[in-house]
Amino acid sequence: MTVYALAAAVGGFLFGFDTAVINGAVTAIETNLQLTPVGLGVVVAVTLLGAAVGSLAAGWLADRIGRPRTMLVAGIIFFVAAIGCGFAQEFADLALWRLLTGFAVGFATVLGPLYISEIVPAHVRGRLGSMQQMAIVLGIFVALLSDSGIALALGGADAEQWLGLPAWRWMFIAGVIPAVIYIVLAVIVPESPRYLVARGRVEQARAVLSRLQAVSSDDAVRLTDRIADSLGQKEAGRFRDLLDRKTGLLPVVWVGVGVAALQALVGIDVIFYYSTSLWESVGFGESASFGLSVLSSFINVAATVVAILLIDRVGRRKLLLFGSVGMFLSLVTVSIGFSTATVIDGAPQLAGAWGPITLVGANVFVVAFAVSWGPVVWVLLGEMFPNRIRGVALAVCAAANWMAGVLLNFSFPSLRDISLPASYAIYAVMAALSFVLVYFGVRETKGQVLEEATVTIRVPRKSMRGGAS
Questions:
Q1: Could you report the per-residue pLDDT of 94-151, keeping only the tens digit for each?
Q2: Which of 234, 336, 401, 461 has a 20 to 30 A CA-CA distance from 97?
């Protein structure tokens, strides 16, 4: 069971690797393909748009051809896109291949938490579900190491050619290695028992449950009967099944969309993307700033390990609330720190105690996010929806997460130019809203079987109208 959960999480590794691998090749791409700043921005950001589309398609496809087969499709796309990016000759085809990469990333965003939540028992679902986020952060870290290693071995990103290709092209092509591993694992892993029941293959579902969760035949019968009851003997959920006449979407889906969007809108991508310039602004040199960025990546991984250890003990809701408070306080600290800065040559320079205070604040934000909203959101999204709509609802939420990421990454340069302190203040407001949403909209799903673990809207008694299911 653990092996299969890790296999599904390899998609998360590809998610992290393929979104981060372009960092080491940016300058070489800009020079060799003669890209304008707008063109370069499109090449970098188009992956997010592809991910939004891919995440919408993944839930639909997974409900029709099965989870492992959809993983196989994603793995093939990752493989082809890595080669395509490595051999791209101009802006248009590189943008196309990066868009296709994003499409596969969107698949991985949905498939990891969906599959893991459906094959593992309730008491370890949080810990194993968190492997998706661990795989993502490891993928980012390995991409940085891979870029650095290739550049070092060949003398720079735009170095002398090896086998007819410069170093920056090999950075992309390196992605075929994890893609091949994902393809092989997709062929090996068993189908989700909940998908099998939905397709009427009940005996096969019972066999899978007995093997994966080591339950008796009688327990397997009870579990499949419960799954069948929750499905209501209806076909897989469709987008129209998420709609509600009064609220547009079902309340439970609105909660999921809000949680997914706020995970991006609190500004974690900005912290990581601009971390080097942040360290330089507090007095560190360029080399030391790069080292501190790598250190932040280590902190991210370490805090994710803590989340994995805590999620099935403390619970999803408490970790999210704790993370919201930590993110809010740290982002307020960073915002105040930058408000004391003196702009010299277009860059903020922090003097006195506010330099290290802002530095610590940024790292506290990374810790608060990584121990809570980073991994817990995807575990919660894999648990909170009823069986019949889980795939399509999770796809909508993942798309909301990616579109929020697009909004964040496109808006930050303008917000920064207007007011850097105000931009971090906005992210602090998003962190505060995340606390409100979880406090009123999310109930604990720790330890519950998926047929019971659905989120409800909690409202004051005077205006109680009933919960969502």
A1: 889 999 999 998 898 788 878 887 777 766 666 776 777 788 888 888 887 777 777 7
A2: 401
Are residues 285 and 381 part of one domain? yes
Query: What HEC string does 128-195 produce?
Result: HHCHHHHHHHHHHHHHHHHHHHHHHHHCCCCCCCECCECHHHHHHHCCHHHHHHHHHHHHHCCCCHHH
> Is 50 exceeded by the pLDDT of residue 456?
no
Answer left, alpha or beta for residue 346, where phi above 0 means left and psi between -120 and 50 means alpha.
Answer: left
**Structural contact between residues 178 and 9, judged by C-beta atoms closer than 8 angstroms:** no
Does residue 44 contact residue 412 with C-beta atoms inside 8 Å?
no
Mean of pLDDT values over 318-344? 89
Residue 220 in domain? no
Alpha-carbon torsion 384, 6, 143, 44, what sign?
Answer: negative
For every residue of 228-250, DSSP letters joined together read HHHHTTPPPP-GGGGEETTTEE-
Residue 87: which CATH number?
Answer: 1.20.1250.20
Q: Is 80 exceeded by the pLDDT of residue 368?
A: yes
Distance, CA of 196 to CA of 182 (rounded, Å): 22
| Residue 38 placed within a domain | yes
Q: For position 468, what pLDDT does the model report?
A: 33
Tell me what pLDDT residue 77 has.
95
- Cα(320)–Cα(465) distance, rounded to whole angstroms? 25
Confidence band of 348 (pLDDT split at 50, 70, 90):
low
Q: What pTM, to 2 d.p., does this model score?
A: 0.70
Nearest-angstrom CA–CA distance, 219 and 122: 14
Q: Domain check: are 294 and 388 in the same one? A: yes
Q: Strand, helix or coil at 450? A: coil
The pairing of beta strand 248-249 with beta strand 347-349 = unpaired
How many domains, the chain? 2
Tell me the DSSP string of 290-348.
HHHHHHHHHHHHHHHHHHHHHHHHH-HHHHHHHHHHHHHHHHHHHHHHHHT-EEETTEE
Residue 356 lies in a domain: yes
Establish if 221 belongs to a structural domain. no
For residue 429, the enclosing domain spans: 238-469
- Say whether both 96 and 181 belong to one domain: yes
Q: What is the pLDDT of residues 121-136, one digit of tens each?
A: 766 666 776 777 788 8
pLDDT score recorded for residue 51: 86
Residue 112 · residue 12 · CB < 8 Å: yes
Q: Which stretch of 14-23, 164-173, 236-245, 382-391 has the lowest confidence by average pLDDT?
A: 236-245
Residue 199, number of CB atoms within 10 A of its CB? 16
- Rounded mean pLDDT of the chain? 79
- Is the pLDDT reported for residue 256 higher than 80? yes
